[in-house]
Design goal:
Length: 99
């Protein structure tokens, strides 16, 4: 995150409504970042470029780039297609929350 963006967010966090909404969005943000990291690491482990993955999917490289940056709201279907192009499969698991 850029220092400019961090300063802007810090300013907005003084607003209780903004701070509450920000806190609500944090779990989704963390999940997106975790998925993005796995996609990027998996691609690199296979020695592929974003363009290679996109060509295997008949998609655009920019879509892969957004997915790896956590900026793409991926459906399970899209995530499965990317995983397949990487030679992986998607597994979803529900686990109890830690209190």
């Amino acid at each position: 995150m850029s220092s400019y963006l961090k300063r802007k967010i810090d300013q907005k966090m003084k607003d209780p409504v903004f701070a509450e909404e920000w806190a609500k969005s944090e779990p989704e943000y963390k999940l997106r970042r975790a998925i993005a990291k796995q996609l990027s690491e998996g691609r690199k482990k296979r020695g592929l470029t974003q363009t290679d993955v996109a060509e295997r999917m008949q998609a655009k490289q920019s879509m892969i780039g957004r997915a790896e940056a956590g900026q793409q709201n991926l459906t399970l279907d899209s995530l499965s297609h990317i995983a397949d192009a990487l030679g992986y499969e998607v597994r979803v698991e529900l686990v109890e929350k830690e209190n």
